[in-house]
């Protein structure tokens, strides 16, 4: 096999290895999983089934997404951002939110350009920066007053950047950016000329007492922000594989071309289901799903009281500090599975020094009744 320098630094995501080791044992508590057991919106199921039965959407075209979905995304973004995106010029539909990352990176970076992410961050973001040929630089998260916070003092030292690639809430930590964070990010983008690539996949999955701020509403960021959205997390429509990119019209010309050549187009019948969910006047169950995620999160934190777990301000997961338990993240992951029957992913590929000392506990795919066994399982693993 010929060498390829891109893959010298790209790391395996880790969760698939844990899932394979866990197998299909029903006793294993599946906290490595990126899925959710909360049902997708019924309106989306019905619209997708109707499209299939009526043979709608079985097409390659339009290459940038069906007009009805681009218009629904524009309406959704108007509510979130306050901006009136042109559905034809400023929105492109993608095959899931994560598939949007590569065409954006290819459009805004040159080889070896620095792209800043948090430590920890979603491996799907970090490793795509490497595959795109850019250089990932990590700004650490710190635990302050019991929650993850951005190290703004380190961020303000950034003097060269092509882009900042950020999530709020962030995977895997559940950290949520506040107003001061976004203002610091705006200052860095203005000073360096960087784009903000904002992964908004979990934007509304925020728990009580924590802010939900869209960066496009922060002075100076709207004209620099490229938004990546998805139906997978908030709307629980993982299998539909529908995402989108929205941003300033000039850079979207480039992103549109990169997207067409990257993934062609998402399935048309799935797009029709997504449009139905976005346009559902009842809210497609988002509020109810968020309440359930918070309830599950709270059970996890209660179960692990006294252990080095950091609560999440939102999202689907929280982190347990393996090094504080005198273990490596891989050792803790192995013990959790072998002794406690808990599948949990070590954060080896999810950042730098902060990420690699933690394992991730995903609470989106296990009900409260099963999560209530977590304490006994962890004690068995550590005993």
From TrEMBL:
Residues 38-363 form the Aminotransferase class I/classII large domain. The keyword Lyase does not apply. It comes from the Bacteria. Pfam families: Aminotran_1_2. Belongs to the class-I pyridoxal-phosphate-dependent aminotransferase family. GO terms for molecular function: transaminase activity. This is Pyridoxal phosphate-dependent aminotransferase. Keywords: Aminotransferase, Pyridoxal phosphate, Transferase. Its cofactor is pyridoxal 5'-phosphate.
